[in-house]
Predict the structure.
Amino acid sequence: LRIRDGRLSEERAPADGPERQVVDARGWLRLPAELRDGAGLGARARAEADARGIVLIGDAARSRAPEATAAPPAVRGEHVVRLRGVGRTYAPGEPPALAPLDLDLHRGELLAVRGRSGSGKSTLLRLVAGLDRPDVGTVEVLGSALADLDRDGLARLRRAHVGVSTQASALVDDLPLADGIGAGLALRGRPTAVVEELLGAVGLGELSGRPAGRLSGGERQRGAVERALAGGTALVVLDEPTSQLDEASAALVAQVLLAAARAGRAVLVATHDPALLACADRVLELEQPGPRAG
């Protein structure tokens, strides 16, 4: 049996027998992305019954999905992030939220951080983005030591150089999705004409005029990813950006993040998602911190 996005979707008979798609009690049939693309099915299809059973016919304008092209290999560019001996503990006597570590990240790289809950993935991302400060060690972003910057200085650094998407995926509920992202770009003094194109890249083009408060959790998450990317910053930091996405949408976001890295940006992402891990140039494994020595 195969489970896709929380539903039973396929069955395979023993001894590598034929694979069968599962029709659920409400009549829904979930077709794998590779099957849809191979058949040339676009966003819409019609179903007809004939002697063979039910036949799906895709968009007339789309005869076949384009062949996927392999991403070029990573080419390291400018040093963007440098951590030396960085660790974080939130309460005296408690285990550290992040055990001390060293980390280097360059332009052109997609680095995935993986680890069990409590291993410090979100803490690491917050330290890199200047949203928290370490107890030990040094954090540098584009040559600037974050310890030398006050709160306003950190905000200016993020505005100029860091795009952030947290697990909260906060968007302006009352504004259309495109307007909310465009407002953030305007505050940074960046052009807003790219918003529609960016939303289309993650399958949200048709929803750009919908208020963010009326989007599903997965749609909001994809919108938050594009908001982090829209500013064109040298560094993009994303915390579990595909946690609410189905398999196909997660693969789409993974390709968008890889393309951002290949365009010369440094992308740091905390994730357990196989699609993102497979795309990453490197995977940093974080271990569960042990108790502090007495």
